[in-house]
């Protein structure tokens, strides 16, 4: 199997890795680089638990060939906490009891982070759409949606309200 050299940034740190041509981003990040916030669920692109952000866009690591990420900037949930503590999305998930078993949580957080970076004042429908590819096996969608809206400054009721941008959310 052919191998290629991959240069990328992972959570702010430059990396160079030798990868097999068919290696997935999930395999590289979770299994070889111990980026264990990325959860391995379905491995076929249907559950969203492996969601990471590549060059600002949410991507499913299980169906992304690592070789396509040469020169890319990759963010995982390990990057969320800052010097001041939890990221506002993490705090909102805690405040709204948006994690039960937690298996979907990191994928949800990354899908939400990408949403708020592109749209700091999402409607409830925007949030639902953004996490529509992420399955919560504990079916806790309501608190997750409320948490994302709260992090955006839109308030827990959400729909249609203008969400004030909150510094530091993205
Ligand atoms: S593990 Fe990637 S979408 Fe399910
Ligand atoms: S909190 Fe258990 S899968 Fe979502």
What can you tell me about this protein's structure?
It is a single chain. With 170 residues, the chain is α+β, with helices and mostly antiparallel strands. The chain is built from 5 helices and 5 strands, in the order ββαβββαααα. 28% of the residues lie in helices and 16% in strands. The model is unreliable at 154-170 (pLDDT under 50). It has 2 domains: 3-79, Beta-grasp domain (Ubiquitin-like (UB roll), Roll); 88-151, [2Fe-2S]-binding domain (DNA polymerase, domain 1, Orthogonal Bundle), CATH 1.10.150.120. Residues 99-105, 136-138, 140 line the site of one FE2/S2 (inorganic) cluster (FES).
Characteristics:
170 residues; alpha+beta; Ubiquitin-like (UB roll); DNA polymerase, domain 1; 2 domains; 5-stranded mixed beta sheet; 5 strands; 16% strand; binds FE2/S2 (inorganic) cluster
Number of helices: 5
| Shape descriptor | globular
> Given the helix and strand composition, which structural class is it?
alpha+beta
CATH fold label of the largest domain: Ubiquitin-like (UB roll)
Bound molecules: FE2/S2 (inorganic) cluster
Q: Assembly state here?
A: single chain
The CATH homologous superfamily name of the largest domain equals Beta-grasp domain
Q: How would you state the average pLDDT, rounded?
A: 91
Largest sheet at a glance? 5 strands, mixed
- The side-by-side strand order for the widest beta sheet comes to 2-1-5-3-4
CATH architecture of the largest domain: Roll
Q: According to CATH, what is the class of the largest domain?
A: Alpha Beta
User: What is the total tally of β strands?
Assistant: 5
Distance between the termini: 39 Å
What low-confidence regions span 5 or more consecutive residues with pLDDT below 50?
154-170
| Gyration radius from CA atoms, angstroms | 16 Å
Strand content: 15-25%
């Amino acid at each position: 199997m052919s191998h290629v050299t991959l240069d990328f940034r992972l959570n702010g740190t430059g990396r160079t890795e030798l990868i097999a041509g068919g290696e997935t981003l999930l395999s590289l990040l979770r299994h070889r680089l111990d980026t264990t916030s990325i959860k391995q669920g379905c491995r076929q692109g249907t559950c969203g638990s492996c969601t990471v952000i590549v060059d600002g866009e949410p991507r499913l690591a299980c169906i992304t060939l690592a070789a396509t990420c040469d020169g890319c900037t990759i963010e995982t949930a390990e990057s969320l906490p800052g010097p001041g503590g939890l990221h506002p999305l993490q705090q909102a998930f805690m405040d709204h009891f948006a994690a039960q078993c937690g298996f979907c949580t990191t994928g949800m957080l990354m899908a939400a982070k990408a949403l708020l970076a592109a749209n700091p004042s999402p409607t409830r429908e925007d949030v639902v759409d953004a996490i529509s590819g992420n399955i919560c096996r504990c079916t806790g969608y309501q608190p997750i949606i409320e948490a994302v809206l709260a992090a955006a400054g839109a308030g827990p009721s959400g729909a249609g309200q203008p969400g004030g941008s909150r510094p530091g959310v993205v």
